[in-house]
Amino acid sequence: MRIERLGQDKIRIFLTFDDLSERGIQKEDMWQEVPKVHDLFTEMMDQAYNEVGFDATGPLAVEVYALPAQGMIVVVTKGKYDHHHSGLGAPYDDELPEEVYEMEVTMEQSDTILYSFDDFEILIEAAHVLKHMLEDAGRLYKYNGKWVLQLEPEELEEVKVPAVIAVLAEFGEATSVTPAMLEEYGNLVMPENAVHLICNHFKRQE
């Protein structure tokens, strides 16, 4: 579980599939109200408080992004209590329990595959291994000092997806960045056919 502070009232939590499976949670469970998910959320908020000082009391907007190869990204934004709409009435305003999470949850599922590479040479190696599986695929960004390769589902044959992900995981790292963040904050280096272009212009290290 990786926690990043995005602002005074906002954090991003990156959960890998290993994080979920260790807690007995399947990806599909995140879409349902189950006790394990509540326990996981409580654990995330405790860790967020300990690591980055994020106090999660009060109303929270929780955005969950499910990604096929990486895991899940949870963005938590803190709101402010509105006593007029708390539903408890004036006599109870001072008795609101501290450990109450009022969550408004929105969920999005994306089939986009995103992996980051610290070094361009490593990306070149990965591209040469991938080129036999991918014809015309890949968009390349530079983001936060790393190279991020983005693959869309329509660019891949479904049967090849596990093999492609295995190669990406061997050379790169699952990233907590979303396609929308890349589009807004990343530097687009190759808008299309990135794997093919990298293989054409750069040779593998001997």
UniProtKB/TrEMBL annotation:
Domain of life of the source:
Bacteria
Family stated for the protein in its record:
Belongs to the MecA family.
Identification of the protein by name: Adapter protein MecA 1/2
Q: Which organism is it from?
A: Fontibacillus solani
Its taxonomic path starts at: Bacteria, Bacillati, Bacillota, Bacilli, Bacillales
